Amino acid sequence: MKYVLIALVLSGLAFGQDTAPAAPTGSNSPADSNSPTASTAQSIPTDQRNAQKAKQIIDQAIQALGGQAYLNITDMKSEGRAYSFHHGEPNSLGIVFWRFRKFPDKDRIELTKKRDVIQIYNGDKGYEITYKGVRDLEPKDQLGPYLRRRHYSLDIVLRQWLHQPGVALFYEGQKVAAQKETDQVTIMNNKNEAVTLNIDINTHLPVKKSYSWRDPADKERNVEDEIFDNYRPIQNIMTPFDTTRVYNGEMSAQTFLTNASYNQGLSDTLFDPQAANSSKRH
Questions:
Q1: Among 4, 48, 82, 274, which has the minimal tally of Cβ within 10 Å of its Cβ?
Q2: What's the CA gap between 7 and 147, in Å, rounded?
């Protein structure tokens, strides 16, 4: 179970990876008027000039991330260390990981120094491979959170949502996020799902991403934030090496990269759980 939790720490991170400062300034809460759902429903202007301003800021962010180099990412390899938190306090000493991602829906995470625990996500399926063999990840508490975070990930929003019919863009003014002056924009798709981005007014790089969702069981609304920091140029792509995840206002995870590379031509076999299990046995 410990390794499942660590894998979920990694699960929502975009191609440009992550971890950042401690609790962010101005984190959204369910009652916060700056939260994605509240702001889009209550106070965001909808005139054409506002949408054009939002698009200009998003276009600047994509260019700052690397422009076509960023948009043309096909896969990513990374390694580093991940930490999980409970009620804002660390509940582990961290664990080393190696991660392989193939856009848009294949992911492999190898855990421990021996790399003997493997999590594979392929499409809408998830698996864990250990010395015991292959098992399906439990849908509600393991696979479900991964699929949700992938759906709202930065690379999916910037590389897929923006090209979907019916997408709406809103500029919400300048806000302080993670101790930085930012322009705040919200992107809403045709399913009324919204992601709010805070873009550094100087570097034009994404500082923070926020979205909310309602739990189908208790009907409560939850807000998840990711804060991106320590950007480094890797193959002409600005890559955040540090990321902090915040869940309902409390820090829940941090990830620190030590290495990253793009477009390595990863084989689909890498994301086949049976092939991974067979290789572990030889």
A1: 48
A2: 12
